[in-house]
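User: Reviewer 2 asked us to show a designed sequence for the structure in our supplementary figure. I'm pasting the structure tokens here. Could you produce the per-position amino acids so we can include them in the response letter?
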């Protein structure tokens, strides 16, 4: 009997972690709906030969889960600024607005609240550190595109750690006396570190009180000021979200008894704006890799840690199935680069020769998407690609404008065909009103179960801390 009681106590302590929350990890997958998570898992199952459902992301193994609505104050479909504000403050606002309500009144964020209480604060992302989601935790502006003003507020925030691609427009407007945002941050006590190696070295110095870790090696933000490379395109030396989290945890832990970290997988959204499934699934797994660092920390501090995972909205209206009762996600493994890189390769080809041969175009499709080799292409499908090629040779195939990058028509057609053959569908290149998932583990994680609105999550984190 005693052994049974002891076993029950162990199980209950695992499910209902007892203790004081001292460490909070708040993961936000930008654009990550339930199908982005499920699709990433099913894709991994397909390419590894595992039964469906056997290859899980870490987040779906967490003991508590739910869903949240994502509408904004102004529309059923939110933008990232309004959604980020909801997740950071617990209050609705209008699309395009950061850290202010619909009347322009300042909203206090969870990060600002905890900062006032002596917590260490870390804000990190795979996109620009002044982009909508990270900015929602420290900025208060009417327009999400007011990047220089947002950057000024970042420097003034006195948050301990920032990590990401860099600033969007660090120089500010031309013909003004705007101070370079990197220099302004340094004046406010921040050390700027470029790349993981330098970031780790600076984080070990006790005299460094505040740190900004960026990918860019150019203070003008010229290299990767807007985003770190997609996981599918990554090269040696590129900064990763996992490396940022690995740097942030010991940095914050060494300087504070308690810390709060917001970690955004921002490039999930970018890929979904381009209806690029293979790249999007790779970004879900990439955020999951960063999550494992936090999970290892949780395992070392189970009675003091809370991990919450959610999304600001869904992007693309992703459908797992577009025709019959089958999926062929294994075909996506033949995609070797993102739609962005594929598009650039076709653009470069046509810049070098205004009328390249069809065989030169086919070679890129074969090397990057596996067409005519690993992926069977019918005569009709080849003819459809040829029509795009002919228009490109005539200068009539202009690029398609997406949220973050114009996509060459040949690249767009190739990615669309591969997605179609994998039986993946997309309803939009923008956001949808789909509900988003919530996953949680740690102290008081049970509070995050069930159906919620996105305004519930930040107040529930504070409740978990105070409980």
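Assistant: Here is a per-position design you can include in the supplement:
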């Amino acid at each position: 009997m005693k052994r049974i009681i002891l076993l029950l106590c162990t199980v209950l302590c695992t499910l209902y972690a007892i203790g004081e929350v001292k460490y909070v990890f708040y993961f936000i997958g930008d654009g990550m709906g339930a199908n982005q998570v499920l699709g990433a898992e099913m894709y991994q199952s397909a390419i590894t030969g595992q039964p469906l459902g056997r290859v899980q992301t870490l987040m779906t193994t967490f003991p508590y889960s739910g869903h949240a609505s994502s509408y904004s104050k102004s529309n059923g479909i939110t933008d990232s600024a309004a959604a980020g504000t909801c997740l950071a403050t617990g209050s609705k606002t209008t699309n395009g607005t950061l850290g202010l309500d619909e009347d322009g009144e300042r909203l206090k964020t969870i990060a600002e609240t905890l900062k006032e209480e002596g917590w260490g604060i870390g804000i990190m992302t795979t996109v620009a550190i002044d982009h909508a989601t990270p900015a929602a935790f420290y900025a208060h502006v009417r327009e999400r595109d007011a990047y220089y003003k947002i950057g000024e507020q970042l420097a003034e925030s006195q948050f301990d750690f920032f990590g990401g691609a860099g600033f969007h427009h660090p120089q500010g407007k031309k013909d003004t006396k705007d101070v370079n945002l990197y220099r302004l941050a340094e004046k406010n006590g921040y050390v700027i570190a470029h790349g993981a190696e330098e970031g780790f070295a600076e984080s070990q110095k006790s005299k460094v009180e505040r740190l900004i870790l960026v990918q860019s090696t150019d203070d003008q933000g010229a290299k990767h000021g807007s985003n770190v490379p997609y996981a599918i395109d990554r090269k040696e030396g590129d900064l990763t979200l996992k490396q940022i989290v690995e740097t942030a945890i010991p940095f914050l832990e060494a300087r504070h008894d308690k810390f709060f970290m917001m970690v955004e997988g921002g490039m999930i959204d970018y890929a979904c704006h381009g209806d690029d499934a293979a790249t999007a699934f790779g970004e879900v797994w990439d955020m999951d890799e960063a999550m494992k660092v936090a999970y290892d920390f949780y395992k070392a501090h189970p009675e003091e840690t809370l991990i919450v995972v959610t999304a600001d909205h869904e992007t693309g209206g992703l459908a797992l199935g577009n025709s019959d009762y089958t999926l062929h996600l294994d075909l996506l493994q033949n995609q070797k680069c993102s739609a962005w890189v594929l598009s650039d390769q076709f653009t470069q080809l046509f810049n070098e020769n205004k009328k390249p041969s069809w065989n030169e175009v086919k070679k890129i499709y074969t090397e990057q998407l596996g067409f005519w080799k690993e992926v069977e292409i019918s005569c009709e499908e080849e003819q459809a690609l040829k029509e795009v090629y002919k228009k490109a040779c005539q200068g009539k195939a202009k690029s398609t404008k997406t949220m973050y990058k114009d996509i060459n028509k040949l690249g767009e057609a190739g990615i669309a065909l591969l997605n179609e053959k994998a039986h993946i569908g997309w309803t939009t290149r923008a956001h949808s009103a789909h509900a988003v998932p919530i996953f949680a583990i740690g102290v008081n994680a049970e509070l995050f179960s069930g159906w919620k609105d996105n305004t519930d999550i930040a107040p529930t984190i504070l409740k978990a801390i105070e409980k």
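For the response letter, you might also mention the following. Residues 1-15, 219-224 have pLDDT under 50 and may be disordered. The first strand starts at residue 23 and ends at 29.
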